[in-house]
Task: structure prediction
Amino acid sequence: MFSKTPLERDKKITSTNQQQKIKTQTVAQKQSTQITQPQSLQKKSLLNKPGIKKLPEEETKTQEKTGFTNKPSDKFKNIKCADPFASSKSGQNAGSFMYIYNAGGIPCRVSHGTSKLYLQWNQGVDISQLNYDPILITCFEGLVEQKHPYNFIAYQCAKEMLEDEQSGEKVVPILQKLVWPLRAALGNSNDKVYENALEIAKCLSNSVGPNLNIHIKNLLVPVIRKVQNKKYRDKIYEFLNILEENGGSDVQKTIKASIPTYTNC
Result:
């Protein structure tokens, strides 16, 4: 074999050096694109540091599905809100005064005057033409309402219906249905409910006269419990006087049997 000349040897060496240089540059470029995690972090995980807790697997899966799309306000969606027109145990069941009024069963509304509230009947409503059964009965049942404006509506509506000149002939047939809710209102512990009930009881006596006599004992039971209360004494005696004036001497005997100190003054 022929030996290589010095010129050929130099060319081969130069070619080999260039290939090694290119290979070294390629390896360096690959290493520069990789980010090596510091050795201190390779040995210690962030999850092991105090104050950083690992999420449960179930919660992690939920976040993966939802993608953290829940709004901050979503936590309020489960709070129950009261529906003013819904049936509930708070008093607005299908038979309560509140429910019937909201459903349009009482043809009136509250008007706010300059100094006080007053009842305004719907356009075209004539009190003398109203069906006292069931409207007046419903209003008597609503006398125990303590929420505004239902307590005012029940009281004022019943008062104006009883004060109508033709009320007597409509009230007498349903008197039995009026006495029991009136007695319940007279036995109520709320001051305003009790005072309204006393006023309605006077209006009822003026409307039906002696027809109320057979029911007086039932009305006296809750009344005499507060006769010694100075706050109500004058109003109670005023009510008893009206009962006697409209019912006659028999009523006086009934009253004195329950309240021996009673005198008509």
Summary: The longest strand covers residues 108-112.
